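User: Quick one: structure for sequence A, then sequence B.

Assistant: Sequence A:
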Amino acid sequence: MDRNTPTERTPLTSLSESFERYLQDKGKGRGGDGGNYRRNAARELERFAEWAAGDRGGDDWTGIVPDDVDRDPTFEDLDERVFREYARHLAGDRGLKQNTVQTYYRYISAWCGWCVNEGYLEAHYAQRASAMAPLPEDDGRKPGDQQAWTSEQRHALTRYVDERARDAVEAYTTLPEDTDPLDKQRARYAALKAARDRALVFVLAYTAVRVGELLRDPNDPRRRGVRWEDLSLDDGSMDVYRKKQQWDAASLPDPVISPLRSYRRLMDPPTERWPVFPTFDQRTLATLVQDDLADRGERPNAIDERRGEYARDFILALEEDIRPPSITTDGARSILQRLSDNAEIDIDHPKHDYLAPHGGRRGMGEVLVRAFGYTVAARYLDNSEEMVRERYSHIEAGELGDVATEALEEIDSLTQL
């Protein structure tokens, strides 16, 4: 199939119809490494498809399609329980090492994330905690092997989103006065989205706040995403609901302040209770606007006319103070996948082919440990010093290696005298 040929994406689309397009995207511009990844991913996708159809697995496994239905597996059949069962299937193969099970599952998880971005799935089911629960712990995987944004990656991504936001804001603010209202709204929408993405990237890159503390968790009403009322840009702080189940202040360092100020000025939220990082998903916003206006007594025809006056439902929501939900952690991963691809950032990691949210936190952890030591880093990361020492032990090991090398060189030089 030609990669430029549009494919209908519905819950009834068969899983295999997405494979070739996914593999083409993964192979794009990756040279030899891309070829290896594509070959390995194709093998694991084929195994997953066979398992989903009931052609692989235990004797009592009949696949994910209901027994009374005669068709191939489709996206309608997928949810987190399916991926949990597949994780259990992989973990139950005694011929596979623990790390191999993790690696095989990551190929399927990466495809699942791509399917969310492409509109095949509504959520990244494979990354849900319940789906991954049956997977074994990595054996021999060191904390330093986990993704951490390097200085080069952080600078490349922040520079890209900054330039993109500046261009979008300038395009909006320099429109002629006689610009058509709908065109002006489209320009504002593009500027808002670019400014939101820039602010999100800068916060993830420099604050070391956990993404789950920053955004909405659909399964935990306490985690509704930070609101503007939670931020104090003058003081450089932000209130977040921490992993330890209590509210606490997180630092907003200087690089984060300007993107947030510019973004807030552009958005001009109706109230301080608006989320800092609202969703821009059109289906979600359309339903939200229609339901809210109906609750206010508007009739369907009047609602349609009202929506027709706006280029995007998000702009209407701003005008009418119809507060949207915050993006979710899955949404943040999708945004970072898109931005990492568009920025063409060089990423070499076995699990993520994009700059994942937690990598920003770990990257800042590396910077702080190297610059100020474990105690300061622990305070900034909201972790115990013991845990920080464990997770960043590769740094100390490397430094001790340098000390050992220096000692050997000194001793060798003395013995040669």
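Sequence B:
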Amino acid sequence: MKDKLFSDFPVTTKQDWINQAIQELKGKDFEKTLVTKTREGFSLDPFYTPEDFKSHEWTKKYQNQVNPKPEIPGISPRVWSNVVRIDVVDEKSANIEILEVLQHGADGLLLVLEGNENMDVLLQNVLPQYIQVFLCPKNNPDQALSAFFDWANDNGFEKKEIHGGLLWDGFAQALNASNDKESILDIVENLLELGLPFTRFKVFSLNSAIYHDAGGSAVQEMAFCISAFIELMDGLTERGRNPQEIFQKLLVECSVGSDYFMEIAKVRTLRVLIHQLAALYQVNLAPESIFIFANTSFWTKTTQDVQSNILRNTTEAMAAILGGSNALHVLAHDVALGAPNEFSKRMARNVSSILKEESYLDKVLDPVSGSYYLASLMSSLFYKAKDKIELLEQKGGWWMAYQNLTLQKEIKAMRSERMLALVTKEETKIGVNKYVNREDSDAVPGINRMPEDENQLKSTRQSLLAENKNQNQG
């Protein structure tokens, strides 16, 4: 464009826009009417301008730092795997399901394992060099990882062609089943040794999902998971482990909720926190090399008006992709009712495919790059999480907060606050506290919160109290 037509217009400042808004409000208070206060502890303006970006310019460093450049020419710049969960009960039937999903849209597997499975039966005719494989062990992670690596070796697959990771975080596990710190460090050391030959396979995870699905805020989940990783790093480096090796074998797992822009910013900020933490340990780590595995949220799912969960899944999947996740696992929309059926599994698998093949979210590496609003959100989340991490460290770190129960109490307090917000209609959830169908056949208890000791954090759903209230009224 040769003629710069915008120069004909006067420059409009943010204050000009605020003054115009105040005029339109006809005397109403601008702050009280249009500025939103978040549970994370900061304010959201109704609009953002280049003036706002001046204090957040540091975020430009992380624009377009999503995934490494594809090695194959012609592949879209934005790459993520469509991961399908397989709960392995019987190896033969699980293998049939695996081959079925791989032929219908999946290019990643999440295998939930006991650890004693026959991998030759389970993974018969599976070619791991073309997909990503993620292992979620119910018990001993060493056993599950060894069995998978033995299968790969026995079948002659190149070690560098095995992609994926182990979804196991020892500190997160301690929030469900008590364990001591030294035992966790022993396990991680063994996992690191097992994974050395498999250069592209991550052997342990940093799990922020556990805090999200237990009801924590975005700042809480980022601060607690990073603090746990600092605890792990310090323990391993004291044992002589190389920080570079630890970061290279790390996989970050998160859950992405329905607060669309906040969740986009959260995923992006997780990458920033890991990158800057690596620099503190003098590790040269490219931001795009950090692998983020995203789940859609269990916390947001409902048992009433279950079909609305399809929309929630889609919003959450979009946020995960635009936030920069490298692998995406979409929960079945009826997951809160118990075991998903074949239809809901297919719908979940199709979400990622539709966002790629019909919405073209893979055609641009970083579509939200340059957004003033998201830059502001990222900056606010980063500094709030950073302050909280520093406070945790001053008070003895993650393990101390876990042992004295302050971590668990804080998450549970936020959980109660957010659940109550639906009961009082401070927040709206379609089908639960607005447009409720009293005759909805899906209005059944479904999966409620499991019994929870004071030292535990169990996954639950925000709508649980409101649903129970609706059932009692019905």
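The chain has a mean pLDDT of 94. The first helix runs from residue 14 to 25.

User: Thanks, that's what I needed.
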